[in-house]
Amino acid sequence: MNAVLVTGAFGLVGSAVVRQLAADGRDVVATDLDIGAHRKAAAALPSSVQVRYADLTDPAAVDALVEAVRPAAIIHLAAVIPPFIYTRRDLARRVNVDATGYLLAAAPAGTRFVQASSIAVYGSRNPHTVSGLLSADTPTHPADVYGDQKLQAEKLVRDSPLDWVILRLGGVITVDPGAYMKLDNLYFEQLLPIDGRLQTVDVRDVASAFAAATTAPVVGETLLIGGDDSHRQIQGDVAPTMAAAMGLVNGLPTGLPGNPDHDEDWFTTDWMDSSRAQEALGFQHHSWPDMLAETATRAGALRGLLRMVAPLSRTVLRSRAPYHRTGQQFADPWRAIADKWNEPRP
Ligand SMILES: NC(=O)c1ccc[n+]([C@@H]2O[C@H](COP(=O)([O-])OP(=O)(O)OC[C@H]3O[C@@H](n4cnc5c(N)ncnc54)[C@H](O)[C@@H]3O)[C@@H](O)[C@H]2O)c1
């Protein structure tokens, strides 16, 4: 078979990957958990896309899936990610690590296996004390359970005899305003040091990278997937600028800077050297300014409404913000995560 099997196919990245592969005329099999929201999303897919439901933490289900599809390539995206991973770390290990092992074991020799990893594997990045861009050679030193599990999964992939490729993603963002309307995600974003470095990337460009990685001559490579240079951002600018493009001008409260003297109290993002990935996969098509313009266009009539509610939104969100009335001078992201969800350390 020539099929590409996409796991986590109804997630943020998976939905874009499936669309990209279908648009490229590839034979796509989308797989994810069998829940109502996914059944609904499946109904809207192009008729050429096959859907098969499976819980990847069940090795027998994984074997049956791979046996039925006999894919030429597997794009493995299924995962439990922050902030939800902090409340479900055992389930997350079964999905993020164990299920990766089941898929690798089930796939026959010659299968191209494209693994979704994250720059979280590098750990905390204090911009006052570390310099230089992240690269495939930057030492890994996970600071939280997510980076740790992603690194464990990478090791399984590297040790497998399949034709593997690892894509480490930066901050994946989308021009779909609805995607930002989750309160847990907003809270999480607001506890991060506002002066941390973050390289964003349009989810459609991530999808292009995964699609290209199923055939490009990149076997055995670890590639960093970030947007072009316009995506080299400062954490505290990203959400407010995106929100303003949607009409919510000054609608988000401002968080706290990181402590320059505490290397551990920073989040796991930084700017990336994506030049090898871009050379091999040619995936960077959407600049940050283009994304903002498109976000504004898509928000359409909603913009006027959001502009009106922006002052109220700022007041309400500030009263619920992670460091509200703590008197803290600096952000303390891991403590804030532990207080809200659970201990995030590996
Ligand atoms: N979103 C980002 O900014 C980002 C950054 C770096 C890396 N990544 C990686 O990219 C991949 C995709 O991330 P995303 O943002 O689309 O995540 P997502 O949470 O939107 O999607 C993950 C999907 O995995 C599925 N899944 C979870 N448990 C499963 C199970 N037991 N069996 C089958 N499917 C299961 C979920 O139903 C969901 O559809 C992940 O591997 C993630 O670690 C994402």
TrEMBL record:
<comment type="similarity">
    <text>Belongs to the NAD(P)-dependent epimerase/dehydratase family.</text>
</comment>
<dbReference type="Pfam" id="PF01370">
    <property type="entry name" value="Epimerase"/>
</dbReference>
<protein>
    <submittedName>
        <fullName>Oxidoreductase</fullName>
    </submittedName>
</protein>
<dbReference type="InterPro" id="IPR036291">
    <property type="entry name" value="NAD(P)-bd_dom_sf"/>
</dbReference>
<dbReference type="InterPro" id="IPR001509">
    <property type="entry name" value="Epimerase_deHydtase"/>
</dbReference>
